[in-house]
Amino acid sequence: MGRNKKLRIRLEGLKRQITDHRIKIALEQQRASPDRSLIRHWNVEIKAWEETVKKLERQLKKGKHHD
After folding, report:
1. pLDDT of residue 62
2. The pLDDT of residue 21 is above 60
3. Residue pair 56/11 in contact by the 8 Å Cβ criterion
4. Structure pTM?
5. What is the rounded distance in angstroms from the CA atom of residue 66 to the CA atom of residue 51?
6. 65 vs 8, 11, 22, 45, 48, CA distance in Å?
């Protein structure tokens, strides 16, 4: 499997995780007494994954110029 394909697969996985966590946050916020520490934890994970997505997208773009 080529480098770009691996990057795209990883990006898809991270984006799916971000979406899943946003859904979890929305569901938790609808509860009568939402767990704020859990929501905060999910937000921290989302932020980290979004940074990773940005880095991987830059690598993917950079790879296209050099391939």
Report:
1. 82
2. yes
3. yes
4. 0.86
5. 23
6. 16, 19, 33, 31, 27
